[in-house]
Amino acid sequence: MLDIERWQEILDTIRKNKLRTFLTGLSVASGIFILVILLGFGQGFKNGIAQEFAQDAATSVWVWPGTTTKEYKGLNPGRNIQLRNSDYNFSSELLAEQIDLKSPRIFVRNISVNYGNEALVYGVQGVSYQFQEIENAKMSSGRFINYQDEINTAKIAVIGNKIAHDVFNEVDTPIGEFIDISGIPFKIVGTFKETEDREEERIFIPITTAQKVFNGGDKVNNLAFTLPMAENFDDAVANSIKFKSQLLSNLQQAHTVAPDDTNAIHVWSALEEAKRFYSLTDNIKLFFWFVGVCTIIAGVVGVSNIMLIVVRERTKEIGIRKALGAKPWSIVGMILHESIFITAISGFVGLILSMGLLELLGPNIEVDYVVNPSVNFNVALSTVFVLVFAGAVAGFFPAWRAANIHTIDALRDE
User: How many CB atoms within 10 Å of residue 222?
Assistant: First the structure.
């Protein structure tokens, strides 16, 4: 009867050890899994930010007017600033050495757009021939506005792919077709594509045509510039900040705006905004690393604890091994082997599951500011090896304790 009870006790101990080992391994695997998934989404966030900025040229600087909020040189606040051709020409000439591409833009309003008997509700914008590269629009067919179109006040139009698909789906190509803008025929000479459908719901015409034909006078709504690429990102940001400061100062003087009135004239730099967002993504990545590493540390502590329990429950076995001549390092190796085995198997299981999940679902994830979450396999694999090393360190101290148990004390243990 005593033998049966003893064997039952031994079996219960084995079951408990297996359960503890399983739970510890699960903790380690979940730590790697969470870390890889978090790093994947950190990279996805960075991809999304890069895609957002890919819509325009990387070094673009945009200007648009606002309303003054401060009294300055006898002028009351509340004045609406209106940009004009003179602002564009003056800024382009004064800062010519710092500018790569440039274009004014005007939004043509209070007009009707028709194709045959169909009324179109797409926006019409007057731009310069260099606007295509500033906007980073890719031509699908035909051509964009050129310099001669501006000089000759040509009545031509370039439309987005979405307009081409929605309106001109019954013809082989919209190139050569005519649309009426407030009763004036404009010939379509090209179609362009953008990264988002809403960016393709635009009709571009020459800026000179927009101003002369539709009574725009010399008014413009935006000024757009790009700067030459620098040797590195930090230099490019510094050049952009310098250009932005000079441009804003010149326009404030031209329109008699207080230097500290931030609402009168707005200047936006893609590079400055990119740096701000990239700094944010880096901080998010650091936070993800912190959360993931804390989870892994919890798993490693669990490994250390389970090894302490294993040593405690195998004290008599260790005493017998030492009595039979086992060396201390063989005892250490026995415990370390189990510790490394748990962390290695658990780590690789977590790695395989997380990488597999990102591989399957990542390319299909495309929400705001998150595109194709992924993680560098070498980084993830290195993390697992670090985890295995940490598991070995965690198991070493219980193993060293086991190796230093006196043989007589171990044999007396119950």
Answer: 19
